[in-house]
């Protein structure tokens, strides 16, 4: 048994030991509660809305319109189940650790860190990918050459960090209203696209050539599923990209005014909003001139949709508008990356200096800077390894790594949900998932299927190797060093006390 100077006692179970800390340790790592339901809802949508602007459309070339539609429905349904399970866990364990917190309580320190590390890969890279896609739009606006893209990445991260230094309350307010604007841009696109819709001619204009590759059918009228069931499966990862990262919302638990009430509601509102936006952008992008075939090849699908309707003369203005969605997800995702690093650092899984917050604004600026720096490093490595010569390769590689980490995280969180049901049947659950254990089992099945089919893509296999290397490095660091230097943070104290202690400051049972 080890005891720290503020009276917390914990067993060094699971092969870990805890450092002794005093009151000042947590005084230097405080967060401020300021987010209500609407802010949480918009943060959830904002974290993902870039997926409706870029990336998803590649699924059209993999499965045709019908295949991508089926993939969107399957994955959207899976996220409803996942968000319901996460909503139950986040209300019962309202810590900023999110997925790490759930798995730490249910699966022990190794399970907690493994889950937190999967989220770390996802949340560090997701805003990086959004910044990469956004830089393409910015290059179109300002006429900068392709080799200038890394400069846009540095500028974007500098702006984000500068905003965060003013305090996360202001940052969240900015993200909230950028997200509202991004949603309105999508709705505007749906409205102006209506007069141009010819579903059969444009949405069904993908056929299969003699070599098995997609070909354009000039008059449309093709099959809903030109690549059959395999096409649906291959489109699943791109369906994931339309919803990926909504699960980051529980990372704001210690900044929410009433997380036990608002977090589950915000999660459900967010995923329902995103499903409606995803179905709208899929239908209207595919059903207007140029259609599914062209959209499946596009690097800027929303911008190309606007060009179809308004012409090239409006391109720069439309690109400026399209940046809103990417910016919303970039900012929201970067803040999630910082919170993930903050929570793992506060508990000692990462160097504890990373979780020190600003004394005035109570913002985890060091964690934010660390996540940003690592994301920039990964972007530059992929850029110089081949991205500068093949922008499509770079985008696909980043998306594949993010989806890999996301699926692993979802599987572990669903297992944690099942274990929490069994191990802690009596802890307070202000919200209970209406889908229960069956919902978690379905999530696991869909995630395993998505991972399995991704290995048909050679690019994905290399991305999986890169993500696995990240994973193994992190696990080795924990095994040989950090597991003997943990700290009884709220997440850890909740876990080792069986839920009797460890609720965050300002939160009541």
List the helices and strands and how they pair.
Layout: E1 2-3, E2 9-10, H1 23-27, H2 37-46, H3 58-92, H4 99-142, H5 149-164, H6 168-193, H7 199-203, E3 206-208, E4 214-216, H8 228-240, H9 259-286, H10 291-297, H11 301-310, H12 315-346, H13 365-387, H14 391-423, H15 436-454, H16 458-480, H17 490-496
Helix pairs in contact: 2-6, 2-9, 2-12, 3-8, 3-9, 3-10, 3-14, 3-15, 4-5, 4-12, 4-13, 4-14, 4-16, 4-17, 5-13, 6-9, 6-11, 6-12, 8-15, 11-12, 12-13, 13-14, 14-15, 14-16
Describe the overall structure.
The chain is an all-alpha fold. It has one domain: Up-down Bundle (Amino acid/polyamine transporter I), CATH 1.20.1740. It contains 17 helices and 4 strands. The protein has helices at residues 23-27, 37-46, 58-92, 99-142, 149-164, 168-193, 199-203, 228-240, 259-286, 291-297, 301-310, 315-346, 365-387, 391-423, 436-454, 458-480, 490-496, and strands at 2-3, 9-10, 206-208, 214-216. A two-stranded antiparallel sheet has the order 1-2. A two-stranded antiparallel sheet has the order 3-4. Strand 1 (2-3) and strand 2 (9-10) form a beta hairpin. Helix 2 packs across helix 6, helix 3 (58-92) packs across helix 8 and helix 3 crosses helix 10. The longest helix is centred in the N-terminal third of the chain and has 44 residues, at 99-142. It is a multi-pass membrane protein. Pfam families: AA_permease. Keywords: Membrane, Transmembrane, Transmembrane helix. InterPro entries: AA-permease/SLC12A_dom, APC_superfamily. The chain crosses the membrane at residues 35-56, 62-82, 149-168, 175-194, 224-246, 267-288, 317-336, 366-385, 391-418, 438-456, 462-480.
């Amino acid at each position: 048994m080890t005891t720290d100077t503020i009276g917390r006692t914990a067993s060094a179970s699971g092969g870990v030991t805890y450092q002794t800390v005093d009151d000042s340790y947590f005084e230097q790592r405080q967060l401020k509660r300021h987010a209500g339901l609407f802010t949480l809802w918009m943060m959830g949508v904002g974290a993902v809305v870039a997926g409706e602007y870029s990336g998803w459309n590649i699924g059209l070339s993999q499965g045709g319109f019908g295949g991508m539609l089926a993939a969107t429905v399957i994955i959207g349904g899976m996220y409803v189940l996942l968000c319901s399970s996460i909503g139950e866990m986040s209300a019962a364990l309202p810590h900023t650790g999110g997925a790490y917190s759930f798995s730490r309580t249910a699966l022990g320190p190794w399970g907690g860190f493994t889950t937190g590390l999967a989220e770390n890969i996802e949340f560090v890279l997701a805003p990086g990918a959004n910044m990469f896609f956004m830089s393409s739009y910015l290059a179109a606006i300002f006429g900068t050459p392709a080799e200038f893209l890394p400069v846009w990445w540095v500028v974007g991260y500098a702006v984000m960090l500068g905003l965060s230094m003013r305090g996360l309350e202001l940052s969240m307010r900015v993200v909230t209203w950028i997200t509202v604007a991004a949603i309105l841009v999508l709705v505007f696109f749906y409205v102006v696209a209506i007069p141009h819709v010819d579903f059969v001619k444009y949405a069904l204009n993908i056929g299969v050539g003699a070599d098995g590759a997609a070909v354009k059918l000039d008059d449309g009228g093709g099959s809903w599923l030109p690549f059959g069931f395999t096409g649906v499966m291959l489109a699943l990862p791109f369906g994931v990209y339309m919803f990926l990262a909504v699960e980051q919302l529980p990372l704001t638990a210690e900044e929410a005014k009433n997380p036990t009430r608002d977090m589950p509601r915000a999660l459900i509102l967010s995923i329902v909003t995103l499903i409606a936006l995803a179905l709208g952008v899929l239908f209207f992008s595919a059903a207007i001139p140029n259609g599914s075939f062209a959209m499946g090849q596009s690097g800027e699908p929303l911008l190309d949709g606007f060009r179809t309707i308004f012409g090239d003369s409006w391109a720069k203005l439309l690109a400026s508008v399209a940046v809103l969605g990417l910016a919303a997800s970039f900012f929201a995702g970067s803040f999630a990356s910082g919170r993930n690093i903050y929570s793992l650092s506060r508990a000692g899984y990462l160097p504890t200096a990373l979780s020190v917050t600003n004394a005035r604004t109570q913002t985890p600026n060091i964690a934010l800077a660390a996540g940003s720096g690592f994301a920039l490093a990964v972007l530059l490595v992929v850029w110089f390894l081949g991205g500068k010569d093949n922008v499509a390769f770079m985008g696909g590689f980043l998306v594949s790594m993010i989806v890999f980490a996301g699926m692993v995280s979802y599987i572990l969180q669903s297992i944690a949900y099942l274990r929490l049901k069994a191990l802690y049947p009596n802890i307070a659950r202000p919200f209970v998932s209406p889908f229960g254990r069956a919902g978690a089992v379905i999530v696991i099945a869909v995630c395993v299927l998505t991972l399995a089919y991704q290995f048909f893509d050679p690019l994905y296999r290399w991305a999986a190797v890169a993500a696995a290397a990240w994973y193994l490095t992190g696990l080795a660091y924990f095994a040989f060093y950090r597991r003997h230097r943990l700290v009884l943070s709220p997440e850890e104290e909740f876990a080792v006390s069986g839920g009797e202690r460890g609720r965050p400051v300002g939160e009541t049972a």
